[in-house]
Design a protein that fits this description.
The chain is an alpha/beta fold. It contains 6 helices and 12 strands. The termini are close together.
């Protein structure tokens, strides 16, 4: 059953998509749990996405997981609003309502296999134009382990640059793929001016300071800014800002 009317897109709004539980299998023998959300036609049949977001969540020892709110809202909205597929998953040892990924948190080192498994799943499923999106701890995973020739580029949200080193930045500079860095004005760890200094060693890095935002991107205005920036870089020319209303059917809860 569906309902048809004009809906304001709120924090809990789930727009139409094909959503399926997936498992990722790492080279060191672990099974990780996740979800893949893909765009659909008006009749509910799957549609080929224009691009793919492979997401890496914040620090699991401080509450980060695949349902961290920016990624949950990306999966709920972007298949319908921007024809994007969104892959989110729990890194090793991380739990969410979807389940618990095998293994134990390894501070960003063993997680190299998690990053590779996510990229491999996108390749195996023939998901087009994959972009890596890291948030906080997830940015460290992208910088340390994400320079894979199969990706189009990466977007970093609130990078702390705690675990990622200048050597990791130099590797990205040599890699040459686009690197978009969204830095909250009021971040707890790395603010725009310092971020511009640190990322200056990556010539292709675009550092974007976001006025008024904080590390966790709390609030609809912050989330909308993040999603607009992601879509604008992954799909140049896509109309922005993204709609605040959905003119069509919504899945029943």
């Amino acid at each position: 059953m569906t309902t048809q009317t004009s809906h304001q897109i709120r924090s809990t709004t789930v727009l139409p998509a094909h959503r399926e539980n997936v498992e990722l299998h790492t080279a060191d023998g672990l099974t990780l749990v996740g979800e893949l959300a893909q765009p659909v036609e008006p009749d509910g049949t799957p549609r080929t996405p224009s691009a793919t977001l492979v997401t890496f969540h914040p620090l699991p020892t401080h509450g980060g997981f695949m349902d961290s709110h920016v990624y949950r809202k990306a999966a709920w909205r972007l298949p319908a609003l921007a024809n994007l597929s969104v892959l989110r998953f729990n890194t090793r040892g991380t739990s969410s309502p979807r389940g618990t990924s095998e293994g134990e948190f390894d501070g960003g080192e063993g997680e190299r296999y998690d990053v590779a498994a996510a990229i491999e799943l996108a390749e195996f499923r023939e998901l087009p134009n994959p972009w890596l999106v890291g948030w906080s701890f997830g940015t460290e995973l992208v910088l340390k382990h994400g320079a894979d020739p199969g990706i189009e580029g990466a977007i970093l949200l609130s990078p702390p640059l705690h675990r990622a080193t200048d050597a990791d930045l130099d590797r990205w500079a040599e890699f040459g793929k686009p690197l978009v860095v969204l830095v909250p004005e009021l971040d707890d760890y790395l603010r725009p001016d310092e971020a511009r200094r640190r990322f200056a060693r990556v010539p292709q890095a675009e550092v974007i300071g976001v006025d008024g935002a904080k590390h966790l991107w709390v609030g609809e205005s912050a989330v909308r800014r993040v999603l607009d920036e992601i879509v604008g870089h992954v799909l140049p020319g896509h109309p922005l800002p993204l709609p605040t209303h959905w003119e069509g059917a919504l899945p029943d809860a």
